[in-house]
Amino acid sequence: MKFLLALFFGVFISVQTIDLQKTREAYKLAAQDANKVNAFFNDLQAVTKKNRNELVAYKGASIALMAKSAKTIKEKKDGFMEGVNLVEYAVEKDTSNIEVRFIRLSIQQNVPKILKYNQEIESDKAFLIRHYNEIKSSHLKMHIGDYISNSKKFSDADKAALGI
Question: Whole-angstrom Cα distance, residue 56 to residue 28?
Answer without folding.
Answer: 16
